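Take a look at the protein record below with the fold in mind.
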Amino acid sequence: MDYKLSYRNWLANPALSPKEVEELSAISDNEEEIEYRFGKELEFGTAGMRGIIGLGTNMMNVYTVKRATAGLAEYIKSLGRRAMSRGVAISFDTRKYSELFARTAAGVLLAQGIRVYAYTEPHPVPMLSFAVRNLKTIAGIMITASHNPKEYNGYKVYGEDGAQMSPEATAEVVKCISGIDCFSVPCVTVAPFSENVDRAGLTKIGKCVEGKYYRAVLKTSLSRKIVKKQAKSLKIVYTPIHGSGYKPVMAVLGKLGIVPEVVKEQVLPDENFSTVEVPNPENKEALSMGISLAEKVRADVVFGTDPDCDRLGVAIRNDDGEFVSLTGNQVGVLLSDYIIYRLKEEGKLPDNAVIVKSFVSSGLVVPIAKHYGVEVVDVPVGFKYIGEKIKQYEKTKEKTFIFGFEESCGYLRGTHARDKDAVVASMLFAEMVCYYNYKNVSVFKRLGSIYEKFGYAAEKTASVKYDGINAMDEMNEVVNSLKGKYVAKIGGYNVREVRDYSSATAITCDGKTVSVDSERTNAVYYELENGMFICVRPSGTEPKLKIYYFAMAKDELNAKKALENLVSGFDETVLKKN
């Protein structure tokens, strides 16, 4: 792409407003910025698209939203009149321009005669997924950049099953997008949702659907009677970090009789997320205001959800009474253990129960599940793969899904949604605290007992940031350089096999090449002895190369030592030789 020509064409286009012309004119002497904005098109993949807000072909703006939606509309039209009448459900979070992008998407669909259902105020990802399923729409659109910095926004597309769109359908949409000029897309003007949403073809998603969602979430509860006894003595601090989680999280907890203390400074929507550096509850810093409040009110636990409320961050008190921020893996292990234990205790654990997790998530859940006769299935990173397994199991009845999680603070119990759900995760963790309090055991103590019985787990995720127009290509090249190369030992530990998930093959320790039963994704995975692993993959949502290290041993000291050996060994044995 001739980025200079593309820049000039945009600048001269009469569709641009004076303010937009001013924005582009301001970078006329900044060739690096022009190349970044116009050197490529914002990629549309199975996770939709995500980018920095601003004008340009490689940016998030109304024109790239129009183009993407026009491609989706063409795909829906190819499915026939029935698909068009089923329509598309739309939601958005609290980010800058999220409602504008949602209204723009609605306008493009309406211009093509496709019915639209829309939430008229910010609603979380899981509620959009639920609406797609409940309303039986052909697709869904969620305007969000999840936990990314304030400069970002994004566009996720969901299939009719409520999971993120399949690779096959995405490929068809991409074909449709490729021939579209973003400035020539017909678009009906949709007024701000707060003013009026009822017009031909556009229907508000109302309280009825919300009520059904809440009832579906509450059905996944496992300890209602105990919560009723313990709720008044439970002290929780919750922060939505200026996102869409406040109303649904408070509503569901309230229905259980739990009334959290709320970080008031972080309740209202704030497109700049001015109280945090990054609105990511994986980071302890994002929970710092919640922890400060929890110290004042002597709370037991702190919850935080991200802007689109699909991730839950948790901090709990340790044995010294100090707050420690749990990793996504630790929360996933605690919830897995709690769900299995309570189902078993109540005589409701299915014989074919299964937990589904991403293959970079904690291996500690495997011995826990095995102890209770529960299977664990690994899938590639991306909750859509967990959603696909749920769909498969519902169809074949071969397994019963009881829980799914990713190390990046994403969790789902129930099949009401097909994406991670911080509302249901908040409810489950809150009732888990109640349950263990009832048993006179802290959650921290429970985690310790899990380690003592099944082995201590240590983990580290390294993120290498890339900049510039070729960031994604450079990251993928690093991963590509590792493929097809077997390594016998890393950090003194035996490597059992090296998997290349892009070709779904693996090289075993005896030199054989075998197939891997998995969806294809760009990742190289090193399986080591004792359940340890290392995985290298490019992030699908931001310009970061991610390296996951996971070690297990009989105690904390040995697990942390093993982790250190994995990190240093991988650096010396693999990274420096490529």
The mean pLDDT is 95. The longest helix spans residues 328-345.
